[in-house]
User: Fold these one by one.
Assistant:
Number 1:
Amino acid sequence: MPYLNKTAPTPEPVDCRILTAALDLFVNHGFHNVSVHDVQKQANVSIGSIYNHFGGKEGIARALYKHLLKEFEEMIEAIIAENPSSRECCNRIIAKLFEYTETRANIIAYMLHAKHREFLPDEPPLCSSTPFTAMRNVVQKGIDRGEIRQGDPWIMTASIFGGAIRMIHLRLDGIIDTPLPEYHEDLIEGIWHGMESG
Amino acid sequence: MPYLNKTAPTPEPVDCRILTAALDLFVNHGFHNVSVHDVQKQANVSIGSIYNHFGGKEGIARALYKHLLKEFEEMIEAIIAENPSSRECCNRIIAKLFEYTETRANIIAYMLHAKHREFLPDEPPLCSSTPFTAMRNVVQKGIDRGEIRQGDPWIMTASIFGGAIRMIHLRLDGIIDTPLPEYHEDLIEGIWHGMESG
DNA sequence: GTCTATACGCTGATAGAC
DNA sequence: GTCTATCAGCGTATAGAC
């Protein structure tokens, strides 16, 4: 979804204008604080078009969610396809997430911050979606290969990616001022070799 | 806030009934999907009472937030007051969070899951609130003492607590079936000694 | 497919009796 | 302080012309 980054509202197809506007508004004001009229206004479309294309506000949110989920999935699949070690695979996923946080903050914010269960009750929770399952599988394979400590795969996955996800939240909330990629090396070091000094 | 745990609606003071009902509804349906009438009904109070006590729905959310924040803060201060090493302090904080997740899930869910900025725009984000600052200070002291690796305190704090927070999310979302305290020991081990095998 | 105008339900909030 | 009844506004969704 390359077009979702651009802000120019006029020349692009209607669907994209709607999705772009909605993503921006949802992230900045929250799903429930945005009305269909807001989206309509910012996208320079009529309400009728919105209902024709997506069937309503929830339809927009769902389309957005599925689209971004797929993009996420492809990103992770691409990394796996390069066939690095499991550890390197985790490192690269974190690097990509950090990169996206800087360049495509809205996308990350929508996927990570939003409580989709609140307005998309039928969707499974993000953590049980394909990208997250893929991450868990990477870790599982690392355990099987002996690259990663033995233990419950949930703990391992949470331990490996938890710090990175936490930093993304902090960055999106404006607590951290430094671009995340600058922290990548130190973070990785801590994940694999522990936080104990010496 | 011990009374916030009990579910018996009748004999307790009005404020508590309102707060208890609101917490339950907010966590299970989301702030924006709950109307004042819903709270009124579940708390067995009239709408007038709600407006008298809290001035509206947002007032309830704010009271809830401040109350639980204070409780959090006291929990962490109590641990610090026991004067353990910085590492042990972190371990105990995680243990307490895990324990709360099992016994007082609503409280944890409200503090962690909810996007308070969406309906409490004047409140600072959770991560810059006193309890989280306290956690960061614990880590900072650990770095100064040489118990924790040198490095940016934000990375260190995120690395130490990120995995635990991630697991709490997974548990609250129903992805993890096992009570979190059972994972505590393994998680701690991984934090300090790294995820690398051997 | 796109638009405008309109309907209708719900929600937050108030007024005023008790 | 507590309650009931009521209001005004917003936000979703539809109807129907173009």
Number 2:
Amino acid sequence: MPEKRVGLTARQQKILEELNDCPDEMSGQKLHRNLLASAANMGLTTVYRNLRTLQQKGLVRCRNLPTGETLYSPVNRDHHHLTCVDCGRTMVLKSCPIKNIQLPKAQTRNFELLFHTLEFFGLCKSCHQRQEAIEI
Amino acid sequence: MPEKRVGLTARQQKILEELNDCPDEMSGQKLHRNLLASAANMGLTTVYRNLRTLQQKGLVRCRNLPTGETLYSPVNRDHHHLTCVDCGRTMVLKSCPIKNIQLPKAQTRNFELLFHTLEFFGLCKSCHQRQEAIEI
DNA sequence: CTAATCTTGGGAAAGGTTTGCGATTTAACA
DNA sequence: TGTTAAATCGCAAACCTTTCCCAAGATTAG
């Protein structure tokens, strides 16, 4: 896909770099701390505002944990997860199950698709066993 | 699918009823207001806590708006959305595109799947046009 | 170069959600 | 039915995120 978006500010580029450099997703708070540490000083508000902007440009995606935290990652990293609704631990899926899926044209005709989020929720083995043990 | 979960408290049932009765998703705040109005008095904390529990039981699902609000809906209502990253408006998808998708067994062997969220993000027609106008 | 306008940034405040903790209710068992 | 342990509740505080508002910087026209 061509890199058609232009006009990233210097700080937006910094944020995007930081996200790309880190193999894991990051919360807004952690991103802020990392940037402070790496000499790119930036207010917390600015971090969140630019994250929002980057989402609007289709470059950054986020997902929400049950704890209320929001984790951000670059869109080009097409990761999805299994998340345990009990302990909150997540596993990364090896591949995107809907990579080649087509949405009905009628629904996307008036909509420029930028990215998607697909998350699976359930019980991990240990939480499941714990519940079984209690219910018996 | 059989209703295998048991042991819902009276308040959890009230919350579930309220969600089922309302055709739209609801925020925690709105749910709380509705319950106050319908004589089922309940603290805000209790609402959120029980929503979490209902998620753990696989009966309720939520999605997060860019505003930070969280919207809850019953899992049996298998709805997904197109959401505009600019204006935040959402459209409901007519059908679930991954209803019949199989995850690799290797990844779900140790995981009891309860539900999923699938959300598409992009630009709605009017926001897209506005951006084009600016960029030219 | 200057002035008016528009965009961007930061601090403080507000909003929604979650957590901690003592008090109350529910449930189990005798 | 009475006693006791466990689960649940609600308030207050904490947390993360977003919004408000004003100052600083950039852009454009004259």
Number 3:
Amino acid sequence: MAMLGSVLLPSPMVLASEGIKKVTTTSSSPIRPLKNCKTVDQLKMFHRSLAKQGLENDVSSITKLVARSCELGTRESLSFARELFDSKGNGESYGSRFMYNSLIRGYASSGLCEEALSLFLRMMVDGISPDKYTFPFGLSACAKSRANRDGIQIHGLIVKMDYAKDMFVQNSLLHFYAECGELDLARKVFDEMPQRNVVSWTSMICGYARRDLAKDAVDLFFEMIRSEDVRPNSFTMVCVVSACAKLEDLETGEKVYAFIRDSGIEVNDLMVSALVDMYMKCSAIDTAKQLFEQYGARNLDLCNAMASNYVRKGLTKEALGVLNLMMESGVRPDRISMLSAISSCSQMRNILWGKSCHGFVLRNGFQNWDNICNALIDMYMKCNRQDTAFKIFDRMSNKTVVTWNSIVAGYVDNGEVEAAWETFKIMPEKNIVSWNTIIGALVQESMFEEAIEVFRSMQSQEGVNADGVTMMSIASACGHLGALDLAKWMYYYIEKNGIELDVRLGTTLVDMFSRCGDPDSAMSIFDSLTNRDVSAWTAAIRAMAMSGNAKRAIELFNEMIEQGLQPDGVVFVGALTACSHGGLVQQGKEIFNSMEKVHGVSPQDVHYGCMVDLLGRAGLLEEALQLIKSMPMEPNDVIWNSLLSACRGQGNVEMAAYAAERIQVLAPERTGSYVLLSNVYASAGRWNDVAKVRLSMKEKGLRKPPGTSLVEIRGKTHEFTSGDESHPEMPRIEAMLDEISHLGHVPDLGNVLMDVDDQEKRFMLSRHSEKLAMAFGLISSKKGTTIRIVKNLRVCSDCHSFAKLASKVYNREIVLRDNNRFHFISQGKCSCNDFW
DNA sequence: TTAGGGTTAG
């Protein structure tokens, strides 16, 4: 805290230097030679000395003075040059070609591109034709200001005036096309050059590196060093290093660094920054730190590279530490440094430090830079200071897509999805980040179908292409919906569009396919993944566990350990769940006992929950209860619920009542426990107790959540709610249900938790959501296709046997996912062996 | 004469 304080509350040294303008020397020093003049005052003095020598109208002298003035490249020196240029000497304009060239170059290199281009135009109007020097300056101005049309016109002029064979002109054209994103045209210029120098190669390599074509940049670099007619210099190497950073390719990066050292290319400040950035992006943080320490904290750009990478990795304290170090070494943070600082505060949701940063920004005049405004808006939104965020937003004259995205993301962060959506709708321009933000928000809010809907409308937008982030959200939505057709289409989409299948996206896809009841696809994706981390293994273990293949799940778990990965708490949940579903009591116990002893992972309540579940399902109720009592932490309602549901399976009414009592104390709002308890009583025929439980629910204003089932037909999901007959196809669904009933299905009336007559019970059972979905699936899909149903609650045993019968009679595979696991039902048999 | 890294939002 103390360390960070000095970043945010500037030290006395910084305060003293702030706000004090540089004092310019006005002492009467002797007249310097022109090449030594470094300030406008010195130039003006030189100009006065010309007058004393009677040379104030001498074209040659004035031309040299203008050239020097332009070389300095400050706003003041450029306007002084322009003043001289506009004045007349001996009744004649000073506008020689050389002067035009000097000024155009000066304007272009200081970023005053409009001035440069308007002077280019005036030059021609004045009847002075551009030459081989004018064209590169003009094109440089076009490249910088993305004046694409002007650049193309200049190209025409170059051809017309026969300058197209000049290497410098060709290099400038190449650079211009690369900068405005026309890489193919740039490459055409490059390929057709009869001779190339280091600038030609560097411009082409850099063009690729800057346009997400880093691979091409690296390839071209290796081609360059093979060609041997030209050697790379530090300009080239900075580009190549940055390309390796973008590729996150450490191996090539190290080769490139070795090349730099071997060939004695100067490692300047810019190169060190590029190298540090490369090592950070490749996650070689220690190497980056070594370089950083070697070259010191006095280098502003280096500090910025380090800080921004720390921020990207979420290492906010380290980022602020670098900024702190800079200040201590007397290096003043610039606006780039402040972007990292503000972003750190935003990530930490630290409004106090964020405000300090804002203060620093204001004191140093950075507040008019769009990027700083965007970062501040993001910070204030994330810190829940929307008013301040909007004040900055309203004052911005140049709101970009990033500005709008910050607002949308801020709303999402605050859980205001509605406001995010409204903002998203009205924003003038949307990019992939905007779409990903809103899609991610919908998925987060469990609005899966809406998320997919938005994704579909995104695809009709020109210039917006889904990326890995989009696909992760959509995969998650598909998984929750259990929509297999959609999931398959998505996988195809990823392949077709060349979206990189990295380990994160891969893991999401494994999860998606396993949730959609397609463990084979899940495993084939898992097999194809390189660099599998613990999350990837967890997804595969879960896939096997959910599909009832407990043995394979445990094999995978062991393979993971053999490969030397350190298991975390999450993967143990997967492994224990597998044991529980497969009834592997002994293996479950062994894994549970190994957690702390072998792997140093202390079991959390969730792991105890898995064990209670495992023991309970295996009928070891007493042992499960003892385990609960031995827990080092207070058992939560979920654990008691596991016990309760085991009691239901075993018909242990007393222990069920005890567990239910505990749950009602710990989580009185938990409806499931009441339902389970009344279930236990109903199975035992204790209708009075059932009635008591129902009354107690009613008194507390609790209602059993309605059962709902989804069924996917030709890529569209249909939702059914228990007892709801509003579906337009209801008459046909009813006919289907009747047909199955007449085929010999004997309703298991014990599933009806109400004391009504048997006919009524039969009717209620026939309107269970999974039955409605099943019947609809049978009548609306082609013969032989698999019917996939996702239910929000547990599948009832009557529906389970109903599904088994239907699978046999109609020769259909039925995949039923409930809130706990999958049932793969085929030819009258279920993968769960009627034990779930 | 021409060429260079890092820069906020998911």
Number 4:
Amino acid sequence: MADIPLTSELLSLIAERFKALAEPARLNILNALREDEKTVSQLMEETSLGQANVSKHLQLLHGLGFVDRRKEGLYVYYRLADPAVFQLCDIMCGRLVEEARERNELFSAR
Amino acid sequence: MADIPLTSELLSLIAERFKALAEPARLNILNALREDEKTVSQLMEETSLGQANVSKHLQLLHGLGFVDRRKEGLYVYYRLADPAVFQLCDIMCGRLVEEARERNELFSAR
DNA sequence: CAACTACATTACCATTCGGTTGCACATTAT
DNA sequence: ATAATGTGCAACCGAATGGTAATGTAGTTG
């Protein structure tokens, strides 16, 4: 983990970032943004979440630098700012995907 | 993120694993286990956490497969079971470490 | 101007979660 | 057997968190 002392402050900062990804709703939003930048309304449709809910999650992700925004007229477009997110998910899946694939419980027929 | 459909169930499973790392106390424990396997008592000393607290965190980490245990006499030795944890932290640090290094706020003099 | 739309913000509620206390269980020592 | 030690576990409490409803705000349209 680099050659840097893991002070309790640094551990808290790392934990804070993990916490942002520790929520299905936010992972869902980030995954929707993987394809393209999207407005809050579009994200509401794709994720089936309420407006205030999506907005709140986006504020959190924006505050931590996971997403950027761009206002255009009446709409606000959000886009990924940290592609490492999916690298993290891939690693996190790892054995998870293996197990799931074997059990064939979570995926549609392939 | 692999070529696998991200069902809501899978998103929940991924989020659950991120949540395990979204806590300074657990990151502290995992980091202590990086050097070597250790007993609950040793982990209590290194992390300055209460006994029941350490035990509870270890149960959670064990349930998700992040750590393994080995009972020897009166002691229980815990060890890392998923080295990917630190790979995740490294990535998660990324820009975080950069920013911190520049501000020189979080690290002792180097 | 007023009406409408897209989004942000606040307040509130229900749930979750980290930490502690107390107790139970297993193992070792006397 | 009794005492002492290491650990697990249930119950509880206060704080944090996700979701929602209501309200505010900026920008557009008529």
